[in-house]
Design a protein that fits this description.
about 55 residues; mainly alpha; two-stranded antiparallel sheet; 2 helices
Length: about 55
């Protein structure tokens, strides 16, 4: 019984969990951060998010 679970049910459940996390991170990257980050005076790429960076367009 236990081996059937890992063979048939675990892969779709794991895939759904990974997909959920990926989508959550992608949506969050659209809106955050609101301000540009700098590390040692160098701007970090992809900050701010796409929506805040294009709000004036």
């Amino acid at each position: 019984m236990n081996s059937l679970f890992f063979a048939y049910a675990a892969p779709p459940l794991l895939g759904a969990f990974i997909g959920y996390l990926t989508n959550r991170v992608a949506i969050r990257m659209l809106f955050r951060p609101l301000k540009r980050w700098r590390v040692l005076g160098i701007p970090v790429p992809m900050t701010p998010g796409v929506i805040p960076s294009r709000r004036h367009e």
